[in-house]
Amino acid sequence: MSVLADAFSPPLPHAKYDRLIAAAQALPPLKVAVAHPCDEVSLGAALEAAELGLIAPILVGPSARIAATAVASGLDISAFRQVEAAHSHDAADKAVALVRAGEAEALMKGSLHTDELMAAVVARDTGLRTARRISHCFIMDVPSHPDALIITDAAINIAPNLVDKCHILQNAIDLAQALHFPEPRAAILSAMETVNPNVPSTLEAAALCKMADRGQITGAIVDGPLALDNAIDLGSARIKHIRSPVAGRANILLVPDLEAGNMLAKSLSFLAGADAAGIVLGARVPIILTSRADSKSTRLASCAVASLLAEAQRTASKAVRA
Predict the structure, then answer these.
(1) How many Å apart are CA 256 and CA 263, to the nearest integer?
(2) Cα dist. 312→174, 178, 232, 307 in Å?
């Protein structure tokens, strides 16, 4: 059973995240380079995750600023390794260097701009690029919905083309498997559920489905185009007479572009009371992206997702070597 699903429990706020955190606590703490944790929110989140045994943070940034933040926030950082950095750009570079040296297994965004951290990640000679397109996933805990929803990409890829979407979808499927979804079901979203030459996202959806049929995308049942209602609501799918193992039951939602994804995720957060844990995939290691507006539960869930993803990557790497 998925660590995010429990068919016998009524929907409760944070219930899916609580199970996610519990699953990650069964693993060794993940060694995480925290880039520039120089405000109470980012430093507190790293220490709280450490207290729960989710991560073993390495604090990378100006030591005087980190120490001042700890004192002002009433936090004790004496037990944690620190790496001196001159400023936020330097902190991002040194956090990435820790990963490249094998001293950290994940990155976590502190009080610096996402662009600063990602610039260090994608640097051609010193970054953490792989052959896979880097993308972002929200893992949404919607209290009124029985299943967790992975929404991608709502944060990094602005207007992805077909090749980009292939990578984005595979990243999301790999994440679903790492979170032990019993059956990843991916819906390629558009404004309609029929292929229309005048709506490019429907053509790309059809192509992605055929790519999945031919084994170019693996690990999930893929269908589309689907409108949001008939992707996640069985009643809507039945009314439209859509026969599909995905329609009405999707747990991965691939959006047409960043604008659609961002609006979908924020609508669920602000109108449906959902939490949105965030993770970046496609780099050598998971990257924990949190916002200053994130709740405590969301921040901890993001760390738990990174831990489970890193464990899945370690297991896959061992299998390849064997």
Answers:
(1) 12
(2) 9, 5, 27, 9
Q: Locate tokens 């996402």: which residue?
A: 114
Q: Based on the number of CB atoms within 10 Å of its own CB, is 63 exposed (0-12), middle (13-18) or buried (19 or more)?
A: middle
Residue 39 to residue 97: CA distance in whole angstroms: 22
| 3-class state of residue 295 by DSSP | coil
Cis ω for the linkage preceding 225 (within 30 of 0): yes
Phi-psi map region of 145: left, alpha, beta (phi>0 left; psi -120 to 50 alpha): beta
Q: What is the rounded distance in angstroms from the CA atom of residue 81 to the CA atom of residue 302? A: 21
Collapsed DSSP state (helix, strand, coil) of residue 138? strand
DSSP-assigned states of every residue in 54-100: SEEEEEEE-HHHHHHHHHHHT---TTSEEEE-SSHHHHHHHHHHHHH
pLDDT at 166: 98
Q: Given this model, what pLDDT does residue 316 score?
A: 83
Exposure string over 136-168, b if 16+ CB within 10 A, otherwise e: bbbbbbbeebebbbbbbbbbbbeebeeebbbbb
Q: What is the pLDDT of residues 56-114, one digit of tens each?
A: 999 999 999 999 999 999 999 999 999 999 999 999 999 999 999 999 999 999 999 99
Is residue 293 left, alpha or beta, with left meaning phi > 0 and alpha meaning psi from -120 to 50?
Answer: alpha
Quickly list DSSP for 142-198.
Answer: -TTSSS-EEEE-SSS-SS--HHHHHHHHHHHHHHHHHTT-SS-EEEEE-SSSS--TT
Question: 109: helix, coil or strand?
Answer: strand
* pLDDT tens digits for range 281-295: 999 999 999 877 778
Classify residue 13 by its DSSP letter: T
